[in-house]
Amino acid sequence: MKRFFNQCARHRPGISLLAAGVLPESERNEIEKHLVACVRCRELYEETKSVTWSLANYAENFPQLPPSQTARTRWANAVLAAGGPVTVFRLLPTAAFHDWWREVFGPWRRVWAGLAVVWAVILVGNFSLHDHAQAVALKSSRPSQEIMASFSDQQEILAELLADRFAPREVESRKTFSPKPRTGRAEILLV
Residue 175: which of 186, 187, 188, 160 has the closest Cα? Predict the structure, then answer.
């Protein structure tokens, strides 16, 4: 991320390659334009060029020093040992899983822990919303007849309380009904 905002850091590998003389032509123009504009990178280029020039001319500046007999023997033994049979270790599945686990989760433990917390919150939220949906479904079912009758009674009482006292009212004739007596005589009183 730092390379994205720091243009000099992005160009430093190219500056080193340009100083060594191995930068491809396709990238050379961009690096040279940056060197014209940036003083710090130009100083780095000059320092790197002075070091790489002396290393490039090493064969001319210093005589060839032949290695000693012990060094030659040590190198020969190392070459022979490298060409010998190689022992191959077979990983057990548990060891392979353990290595994989360290590679995947080891460097990113905090990220994985954060994701686990997010997954747990989503899971809890899902269950709580499911319970909430059931409660809403129960509440939104049709009200019973008793509730509707009570509601209409309350509505009538409220209408009577809010009615204008001076407005003419309809007088209802109320009829009283009394059940028939069990005896043979039947008298119905109507008022």
Answer: 188
| H/E segment holding residue 89 | none
- The CA-to-CA distance between both ends of the chain, in Å, stands at 96
Cα torsion 108, 111, 114, 120 to 10°: value is: -70
* 19-35 pLDDT, tens digit each: 888 888 888 888 888 88
Closest to 15 (Cα-Cα) out of 5, 2, 37, 4? 37
Ramachandran sector of residue 16 (left: φ over 0; alpha: ψ -120 to 50; beta: rest): alpha
Instruction: Please tell me whether the overall predicted TM-score, pTM, comes out greater than 0.85 for this model.
Output: no
Q: Identify each DSSP E strand in the chain by its residue range.
A: none
Taking the C-alpha atoms of residue 178 and residue 79, their distance in angstroms, rounded to an integer, is: 124
